[in-house]
Specification:
The chain is mostly helical and about 250 residues long. It has 2 domains: about 60 residues, no CATH class; about 150 residues. Helix content is about 60%, strand content about 5%. It contains 10 helices and 4 strands. The longest helix is centred in the middle third of the chain and has 22 residues.
């Protein structure tokens, strides 16, 4: 017997016709029993009767009914789920709001400012500040490439290790710099400490095959340790502010 282009030797009669019925979806009017070679193309009427009985029994036992909309209830909104999915966006929005509020308070007592590009504050800065800024800029652009590029390939792993080194250098060098309130530690140093803790955790997650945890750690550190911390380096009166603005 031939069924979907495949020969089934030794299958004949009702069994052959039932197999054909399965292929046609229990449509008796579409079932044409194929006789074995040498039988002259005779039709197996007993097999056709068997298929008709099976088709009728199937239609009676499983009638087609319309699907009710209640069968698929609407997905309920979950605040915890929404917050976990958008935690980086929420943190970035909070950080940006705090940055704007502090900047407005500082600018209120300053003369009008204007934009200009002046590299002299960076060129005359101590060596540790230069190391910190160069490491931060490297980590920023490398992070953008990693987030936008293909994950899991050799380039991703190579750039990923480079990003870890740049982030570690940025975080460590920040502890050797003064905060915006003199020699006291600031929020930026807290983010640097969190980055140094999160980097080995992210690497361990990747090596252990926990890709979701790895991605969560890396995106969180890029958002907090790079974007938010980097944003506060542009507060009025700080070095990065002096590179682009003047009173």
């Amino acid at each position: 017997m031939r069924w979907i282009g495949i020969d089934f030797p030794g299958v004949s009669g009702a069994s052959r016709t039932v197999l054909t019925a399965f292929r046609e979806g229990f449509q008796p009017e579409h079932v044409v029993p194929v006789a074995e070679a040498g039988r002259g193309g005779e039709v197996d009427l007993a097999g056709r009767d068997t298929v008709q009985k099976l088709s009728k029994r199937t239609q009676e036992s499983t009638p087609m009914t319309a699907v009710s909309p209640d069968a698929f209830p609407a997905r309920r909104f979950s605040l915890n789920g929404w917050r976990s999915r958008n935690v980086n966006k929420i943190n970035l929005a909070i950080g940006a709001s705090v940055f704007v509020a502090i900047s407005l308070l500082i600018l209120k007592d300053m003369p009008p400012v204007r934009f200009r590009l002046d590299a002299s504050p960076f060129l005359t800065a101590p060596a540790m500040i230069k190391v910190h800024v160069l490491a931060a800029v490297t980590a920023f652009f490398t992070g953008l490439i990693l987030l936008a590029g293909v994950k899991g390939n050799l380039m991703h792993r190579t750039l990923g290790y480079g990003w870890v080194v740049a982030m570690a250098a940025t975080a460590i060098s920040s502890f050797m710099l003064f905060g915006p309130v003199g020699s006291y530690l600031s929020l930026i140093h807290a983010l640097s400490a969190w980055t140094l803790i999160g980097l080995p955790m992210a690497i361990a997650a990747a090596r252990g095959g926990r890709i979701r945890a790895h991605a969560r750690h890396m995106t969180g550190m890029f958002t907090g340790g790079m974007l938010i911390a980097g944003l506060f380096t542009f507060l009025p009166g700080r070095l990065m502010w002096d590179l682009f603005f003047t009173a």
